[in-house]
Fold:
Amino acid sequence: MTHLPKWPLVLLGLWLCSGFYLIAANQQGVVRRFGRAQPAVVPSGLHYDLPWPCVRVDRVNVQELRTLTVGVAAVDSLDPSGFLRPAGLDRVGEFLTGDKNLLNLQVNLQYRVADPLPWLTGHEAPEVRLRLLAESRIAEVVGLCGVDYVHPLGLDELRQWLSRDLAREVAAAGLGVELEEATIAAVWPPIEVKAAFLDVSNARAERDKLIEQQRSLAEQQVTATRAKARQLLDQAQGERQRQIELAAGSADRFRALLAALDQQATSGNTSRDTIRARAMQRLFLESLTTLWPRLGRTLVVETDQPLDLRLFPAATPPRSEGAEPATRQ
Structure:
């Protein structure tokens, strides 16, 4: 009996075993049978299909955060001397603003491959398509803005605007990509006008400094004025309380005097009107004693003019010309 060799069976077994393939936990696979991609995406795990070379498996990390840079770094950071800089590098990443100024932008796109099938089979160069789509949208957005908005006043709003619009357009393009964020890494003017932009930036910084100083001074003055007003209000409240207390004391003394007069009129033989008249006369003399020192003044009297020396002249109608003044007894 003739024994068949075993090595062809071993080779056949090894060839059949080549149909096993493993997809990692953070990956998804796309199977190509005889060069044609299958519509179903293969999840993670151990799988079997036709052996090599009938089947090829492409694995894509769907959890990896990728970065795509639109534009280049600032020219000064690449080569300050400019001797070894390639020709035309200054024009890479230039965008025209809405007020007809040129600015260089470097935008970093953070994205993740959400669907491997359109990413691998939908386009020949998906990253190039994503770059062109981003450049087109950036040019459109920058063209709607002024140079002062892009450099540097509205960078945060511009970044949010780009992130929202690019995410919507990338999803509509069918690249199988999910855009996480668009970050404006750098904005700088062309070399020819860099000095002018620097002067504008310095002037803007000086303006902001002066505004901040004046705002601080205004706050200090407002605080000082409020403190002064509060002090005056406290003084007025104190003076008001003092006047109220003085008036209350005077009223109490007057009421006590009236009570004493009533008691004296009740207990004595003198009439009430006589006692009240005497009390009023005494109060009048006390008032004169207080007021008279304050009335000291110098009078210049003309000899041909009448002189009224009354302290409290009566409200009498004006005399006619030639009338003699009334004589006080």
Summary: Helices lie at 7-17, 75-78, 116-121, 126-142, 147-153, 155-173, 194-267, 272-291. Residues 74-85, 320-329 have pLDDT under 50 and may be disordered. Residues 209 and 270 are 87 Å apart (CA to CA).
